[in-house]
Please model this.
Amino acid sequence: MRLLGKIFSKKEEILPALDMSIFKVDMHSHLIPGIDDGSKTMSQTIGLLSKLEEMGYKKVITTPHIMRDYYQNTPDIILNGLAELKNELATLNLNIQVEAAAEYYFDYAFMQQLQQKEKLLTFGDQYILIEFPFHAKPSKIDDLLFELLMQGYKPVIAHFERYLYFDDCVSLAQEWRDKGVSIQLNFNSIFGHYGVEVKRQAERLIDAEAIDFAATDCHNIDHLLILERNSTNSYLHKLSHLKLKNNQLI
Ligand SMILES: [Fe+2]
Model:
């Protein structure tokens, strides 16, 4: 009887589809056409923005990759792409606001740009989105974060849950947050889209309330459809109850 009781008490409550308008602003995506591995054409971008608006978003801050070995984007390339996109939007019946920053890959070129105090693309109040390699932990992460903070930037670590080389991800996230670094989580990590280990790290971070931003990291329509299909997920609901900074970017 006790076992049966345990089984029944474990049965999950069925939750409604989460209304994504609660997040207001998506601050990590790849929607400038043709400049990275995200949207390939203007019409794809318009389709993605229509979907994001339908989901309830008010603003998208799109963040093309800047990665010396693969995507040699510059602020000019990104801002020109944004201007073309805004021209296109002006002819359409879409109300979603669009801004652009970048997702900076932590490589030697980025460190050089930072040290030479080149203009870097930020969003909101001096936030800068940074990603690390997935395969191996880079050395000198602490130096990078220190330099960014010293120069007045507020580093945001993109999809922090995806770096499986951070053994105790919750302690590290808390340690960095105490120093002024923000932690960003991808929604689709919660649903196992990037594997079961990433899903577990995402759940640990949500349970510990160690997240500052949540984002789609949308490269294509599949990313939004996966999110929509999983809108009743209990961890997505739990995430929506955290004090996130997304809606401060409106
Ligand atoms: Fe990204």
